[in-house]
Amino acid sequence: MQRKEKHALFWGLGQLSVMSGIVIWFIGDRILSEAVRIPLCATLLSAGMIGYWSGTKFFLGELHRYQIRLILPAGLLISIISSVVWVEYPDLLAPGSALILGLMMLWCGQRLINNKNRYRLLGITLILRGGFNVLTSVTLGPELYLIWFIGTTILKTLSMLGLIYAVQDEIQQRYARTIDSLSNGFLIRDRRGYVMVANERCARLLGFNAPADLIGRHVSELLPGLTRQMADQYFSHFLTEGVQFPIVDTTILTLHNGNKLPVEMLGSPYEARGRLYCLVQLLDISERKKKDDQLYQAARIDPVTGYFNRHALSKRLEEEVAKAASSVCECAVLFIDLDKFKRVNDSFGHAAGDELLRQCARRLHGVLRPQDVLARFGGDEFIVILPGLPIGTSEQTASDCATGIIATMADSFSLSHHAIGVSASVGIACYPSHGSDSDTLIRNADIAMYEAKKAGRGEMRFFNDAMNAAAKDALVIDGALRGAIEAGEFHLVYQAITDAHTGKLTKVEALLRWNSALLGAVQPDRFIPVAEDSGMIVELGTWVLNEACRQVGQWKAGALGEITISINVSAWQLADPRFVELVRQALAANGLAPRQLELELTERVLIDDGGQVQAVLAQLRALGVSISLDDFGTGYSSLSYLTQFHLNTLKIDRAFVMDIEHSERSNNLVHAIIAMGHSLGLQLVAEGVETAGQAAILEKMGCHYLQGYHISRPIPAEELLVFADGLLDRPHVDNFAI
To answer: Domain GGDEF, which positions (predicted)?
Structure first.
């Protein structure tokens, strides 16, 4: 039994004892002797007083443990004293008991009035009853017994009703306080949909001031979007067998003020007096929904650009492919990579890089149709989906879109008060010709994008099967490359570069060769691009640098003496902050002068990261290392680099050399290149010299050095020594044609 119900038990026992005492007093003389009747009445009177006293104290929360322990001794003492007095003076029993009981009632009434304002009426009733008992104790005679009995019965009935009301009100108040203290909304509705009980939280959630505004009203009156049919349908769940409770529903309620309230409703059946009710808890999940929305955004939206991320893109592409399959149409995927984005991050920081990504995303979105999808795939890569294209139009639509993307990226971007230029390489794959699922389309568009990057900046390429074969080959090579250095699978061969006038061996170019244990001999044009894409070119380049310098150190101690060695350097190596120090260490470790090392760069290296390259080349020039521009004349803006970069050597591409004997145009072009090189104070090396006639023409034009199969094929280091010895016995280059 709960603590608050015990006062009712005490009061009930007290009233029962008093009434029993009255009955025994009036009719007990017929069946009991005075010696028994008087002590029994005294005991019942004592029990009645203790019941009222302890019930009132308990109701007020003032009954303590030590008082409870004294109740029985005190009651026994009162009973003994009363019995002794009333046995001696029987006439005092009726007025005495009425006086004692009246005083107790007065005390109880006064305590209730002072401490429980809600029970003032009960307190007044007890005071009236107590006053009546005190009054009758003075005036009570045999002739007034009937009047006294009627009056006291009425007052007892009123006091009992008051006690019952006090108990019920206390229970109801505690119940109301309990449900009002709940952090969730709480209501009980009947089968018809009328609200029987509601708490404060429920009223506030639904936009009302108090629970009274809800009680007695149909639930459809509380929410504009709720109908009686919907309310009946919800209640029907509680009549269905096998349903697990509570029934949990998540919905968004529309309130009378127009606000939207996301809630979780927990419904459970509730039976009272044989009737089924529905008990519903309303949980405000606004914060949870807000967090869920944020998680949803984080899971689908790229935080930098605000467009779809990789995960959302994959889901959306799956949907578009499914739509295309069901509606017999096509779609296209454009894989976009920003050229030279790394330079922006390295030069201006990641914050500037993020701003550039945002600007690029806005430009990309500007050239798309409303139904097209843009996503950041990762890093500086974007993907565009062109959905719902009519049969046979996907390639043309994708080509037009890619052209627009390349064009919009051609304009410079304003970033950190600088005009920054980046371009875009675009790979395209179309459904169904280039793939029948989302993963295949993305992979093939990615492969096509890398082919576009190989072709140069600002290019686009459509996927084809040959690209797929090349991509698979690249994967095999990439796997075989890892660990190849440690396995000793690489070696260098050396191609002689001789003085065009004297025929003397002055330079050699170190060329990397790979004999894979898995693939056999792999040509450089197969594994070098793969190494560059994977970043392994840095490790390979470092190995070539150290091995070439080691070999030159051995030659220096032998018959060749001082000779210059030329090695190819990639953009990845120049971007490595350790590169200049690696060069310095390789020279020092092998006792070489810096002038004995020449680094060959392609125009692509200068194009990709001009600012970074310029800074590194300045450090290398300060070190004393020579810089050579390889394949001169095959790039995009070669002449500008002759003034922008301080070079030592130009290597004329073999494409111009091979026709100088038979093509006046090629002859004139090579002559112009050599003349320009002389005017700029550059050393000139002609590549691809394959005949004595070519050698003679180049020497006559003033070319400084010759390299090609006419001079020597790439050969191992030990064979180069034999070749050098043979040069000592060879005639002058003027007699090469003989």
So the answer is: 329-465
Q: How confident is the model at residue 2 (pLDDT cuts 50, 70, 90)?
A: very low
Say which CATH class 476-729 falls into. Answer: alpha beta
Averaged pLDDT for residues 521-546: 90
Which residues 6+ apart lie within 8 Å of 562 measured at CB? Answer: 556, 593, 596
Report the C-alpha gap between 300 and 303 in whole angstroms.
9
CA angle at 279 for the pair 277 and 280, rounded to the nearest 5°: 140
- 542-585 pLDDT, tens digit per residue, is 999 999 999 999 887 666 778 899 999 988 888 888 999 999 99
Is the CATH number of domain 183-289 3.30.2000.10? no
**What is the pLDDT at residue 155?**
67
DSSP H helical ranges for 651-734:
654-657, 664-679, 692-701, 717-729
* β-bridge partners, 279: 188, 268
Is the preceding peptide bond at 246 cis, omega within 30 degrees of 0? Answer: yes
pLDDT of 139 > 60? The answer is yes
In this prediction, residues 493-498 reach a mean pLDDT of 94
Q: What percent of the chain has pLDDT over 70?
A: 86
Q: In what side-by-side order are the strands of the sheet with 381-389?
A: 373-378, 381-389, 330-339, 423-431, 460-462
Q: Nearest Cα to 427, choosing from 408, 409, 454?
A: 454
- Distances in Å between the Cα of 720 and the Cα atoms of 495, 551, 727 are 8, 11, 11
- Which two three-digit tokens encode residue 147? 């009047």
What the block records as the tokens of 438 is 């989302």
3-state SS, one letter per residue, for 360-387 = HHHHHHHCCCCCCEEEEEECCEEEEEEE
681 in Cβ contact with 660 (< 8 Å): no
Q: Tell me the C-alpha distance between 315 and 325, whole Å.
A: 16
Average pLDDT over the chain, rounded to whole?
Answer: 83
Q: How far apart are CA 432 and CA 297, in angstroms?
A: 31
**The domain made up of 300-463 is a member of CATH 3.30.70.270:** yes
Res. 733 pLDDT band, cuts 50 70 90: very low
Residue ranges per structural domain of the chain: 5-178, 183-289, 300-463, 476-729
- pLDDT tens, residue by residue, 588-624: 999 999 999 999 987 766 655 556 778 888 899 999 9
Burial status of residue 477 (CB atoms within 10 A of its CB: 0-12, 13-18, 19 or more): buried
Q: How far apart are CA 205 and CA 227, in angstroms?
A: 19
- pLDDT score recorded for residue 509: 95
Q: What angle do CA 561, 563, 567 make, to 5 degrees?
A: 145
Strand partners, 117: none
Residue 666 has a CB neighbour count (10 Å cut-off) of 16
**C-alpha closest to that of 609 among 336, 339, 338:** 339
Percentage of the chain beyond pLDDT 90 is 36
Q: Which residues contact 293 (CB under 8 A, 6 or more apart)?
A: none
Residue 718 structure tokens: 């030990």
d(CA 680, CA 675): 9
Nearest-angstrom CA–CA distance, 86 and 92: 6
The pLDDT assigned to 735 comes to: 36
Work out the burial of residue 336: count CB atoms within 10 Å of its CB; fewer than 13 is exposed, 13-18 middle, 19 or more buried: buried
Q: What is the DSSP annotation of 624-650?
A: T-EEEEEEETSSSSHHHHHHHS--SEE
- CB-CB neighbours of 110 under 10 Å: 15
- By CB neighbour count within 10 A (0-12 exposed, 13-18 middle, 19+ buried), where does 171 fall? middle
Check if 300-463 and 476-729 are the same fold. Answer: no
